Amino acid sequence: MAQNALLNVEGLKTYFDLDKKLIAKAVDGVDFSINPGETVALVGESGSGKSITSLSIMKLVNKPGKIKEGKILFGGKDLVSLSDKEMSTVRGSEIGMIFQEPMTALNPVFTIGNQIVETLIRHKKLTKKQAYQRGVELLRIVGFPRAEETMKEYPHQLSGGMRQRAMIAIAISCDPKLLIADEPTTALDVTIQAQILDLLDEMKKKFNMAVLLITHDLGVVAEYADRVMVMYGGQIVEETTVERLFEEPKHPYTSGLLESLPALDKDVDRLGSIKGTVPPAYNFPVGCRFSDRCPHVMDKCRQANPDLYATEPGHNVRCYLYE
Q1: Whether the Cβ atoms of residue 214 and residue 180 lie closer than 8 Å to each other
Q2: 119-172, pLDDT tens digit by residue?
Q3: Are 307 and 323 in contact (CB under 8 A)?
Q4: SS3 content of the chain, % helix, strand, coil (to 5)
Q5: Which of 133, 148, 201, 238 reaches 20 to 30 Å from 53, CA-CA?
Q6: Going from the N-terminus, what domains does the chain have, and what CATH number goes with each?
Q7: In this structure, are residues 213 and 42 in contact, taking their beta carbons and an 8 Å threshold?
Q8: Taking all residues of the chain, what is their mean pLDDT, rounded to a whole number?
Q9: Which pTM was predicted?
């Protein structure tokens, strides 16, 4: 547990009981911390457990999913033990969230203004007039040139990039200490992606927020994160600073991800790839979860899952190569 951290996740296990015998261990013993004002990236392929980790922090995991074990300590409170009512006051006001598909996250039958105003009245106890003025101001901050008109528009009247900006305005409206951005640029084209990520970075500095950035794009990680956690099979397999990860990746999975990226300074005929696919969360291999796809697999890898080792201060890796 990190001292003075804003968020401490300890031993988090979120499982889905699919039937009496089949259990999907979507998040299986995850530990990490985030400090105030820091951007931490959570990286991995689809199915590695990134989004379920973020939904667990927000306590938005739908049935049959359930947090089975662990603590989520935020500002001295264990969020796991809070009631739905208590959690609803934390959600939005202290922890904001941006979802990967703004069209499904925004309510299609209410105007953008209505959705911002409702959040401000609920969490900030502003009058309707104050909330409306603050809403216009927030839309200007996130880059709407026609902020007044946008307040009266519905989500379907905005482009994908503008909808995502509206989501950011709602997420930062109550000055949260932590912002969770779950693949915030997935549905957007490349130029708009860069604008949205620059905007998030600007908001983080302006409001001194910590950001948990969930992504599968290592280019985004290199540009915007301070620290990075690589996730595979519901567990964190490597954790270090962004510089260390790109200079000296330790876990074979991390190395595989980096080798699959095109590099400007190398001329190669074919990019690297990782054989196979992420195993489903109800059917992980015995031992190390990456053993079926790993080029360095040893006998012991197929017998027991390694712990997360500290190979040096601030660099942890879950691999027997560093035991």
Answers
A1: yes
A2: 999 999 899 999 999 999 999 999 999 999 999 999 999 998 899 899 999 999
A3: no
A4: 35, 25, 40
A5: 201
A6: 7-94+174-263+271-322 (3.40.50.300)
A7: yes
A8: 92
A9: 0.93
